[in-house]
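Q: Start with the shorter request: fold the first protein.
A: Done. Sequence, then structure:
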Amino acid sequence: MIARLEVVYCDGWDDGVVNPLTAKAAQARDAAGEPYTAVLLIDDRRHAVLDVSWADEYCRVSRFDAAGRQVSCHELRGTGDGDLFLRRAATWDGPPDVGEYEYPHVAARTRTTYRLSGTRTDVVEPCGDLGARHESRSIQPPPRLPVPGFRRWRELLSLAGDAPVEIVDAVRHPLPARTATRPPWRPPRALRPHGIELLFTPGTQVEYHGRQLRLSAHHAGRLHLPSGRLIAADPSSLNLDAEPFDVTVPPGTYPVSVGLATFVDDPGHTRVTAARLDISDRPAVRWELALRNGQDPLDLDYQEFFGFGVDTGMACYVDADSADRVTDLWRTLDGLVEPRYRTTDSGDMVAWSSGWGDGAYPTWIGYDTSHAITCFITDMLLFPTDSQDDDED
């Protein structure tokens, strides 16, 4: 017998339906690629929740048992050629007398991650958060399926473990509903560069917590890149876990600029907004996050990024072949309070003070119209970025 699932549309699920939508409004969002949620009911109870954002080539299918406990979660991402592939899957199987909030912590848990390259990683935790953890890797292409049409989610549900179902719109439902200013979930849109060219536009003024800051750009020196493999890091970590970016540039010596923000009402107070290593004088037409070995953008959630950590209040550029020679130079930099940047006499390191201080910072790679690298910009995140519009490129 085919199960009949009724669908309720909304902005998301959070102990109830958040910002209910009509079927027509949800279908319009689906066609436009905008985020929405479909809550699928069986016998008036929540059976599955689909979080969809086709503009992000993303879908998450969460399934629940009759006691309201989550028993599986499957995340699908875009293949780049119009299909979806299974990126992550998690299942829980535990004792029947455990409540929904404790269940995911004590139930036996299996997590699987696929990569488009054809590798699969399985993590099995027989006692949930307690006890052993077994990890294995194998060569296995991920399951794939085409992006489904609106309400045509049988293949998605089948991939998540459901038997064949019939899907119809709910006429009415007993679920609690409420309104909220923000949806309870966001598509996994990683941090994007926001106005980083402005950080090197002299005379630009920005407001920060009611105070005006004036931006300026300063030539910091020239960096030797004998191998063309750039490292951006806290200078104190060069002998620890600092690794070069995956991309390389022709060996050479390249100019480095530092952007400064000066408080208009306190001219003696400056902060570094960003550092820029110019490979060519051609303008960048697109930006990509600089990655290191093993980093995959599909691992990033909303507004997340891969970057480097800072514990000394300083950051630097060095070449991978020069790192061993300059591991102790940071001790001589004296915090870079004034001036805020310095190039070593050898040209093997350009260092600067790190924005507001310790934290984690991304580096963006600029590409020109011929897809050649034109620059690296390390953003010190001086200004908040969580106000960026979700649909911003």
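Q: Next, the second protein, separately.
A: Sequence, then structure:
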Amino acid sequence: MRIYTRSGDKGETSLVHGDRVPKNHQRVEAYGTCDEANSVIGMAVSFLRKEDFKDKEEFLLHLNRIQTILFHVGAELATPKGKEVYWQLKKEHIEELEKLIDEWDQELPELKNFILPTGVEAAAQLHMARTVVRRVERQASAIEGELNNPLVVSYLNRLSDLLFVAARYVNKNLGGEETTLNPDV
């Protein structure tokens, strides 16, 4: 299979099922940003592979599952309303995130202040992924009426919460320092 097709050379791209739209279409922005978030999570995973901490392999399996689901969410965002969705996000996927949030958060010190997105490299990348997921969420919200699945926005909202907790979890397990917001600046 050839990587380049030249079909996008004039500023258009194909959605799932072949509809052509401009590359700056809101739907393309949303699934492109979803891909960006997935790449940032991948960067965090690459840093984590070099580290050693309790339950590392299980943690990486969860991130791999999240990346896979996020890939499918991108496909849902790329599928025009009314067209067949090959894979569909379910409520159980959101519940999985909530379970992980609760599980990881139990091991963390209680937050009493806002924290800055800092710490070890992997944690900083997870914070970056969180902000990119928030952008996807805003973009998906803008086209919510055009989506086949109303759970997409909810999943993205919960995923950003999970990435925040995951960053804190990584910092705790790797000795990364959480920098609290200085209100006197």
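Q: Describe the second briefly.
A: Residues 13-174 form a domain with the Hypothetical Protein Ta1238; Chain: A; fold (CATH 1.20.1200.10). The longest helix spans residues 151-174.
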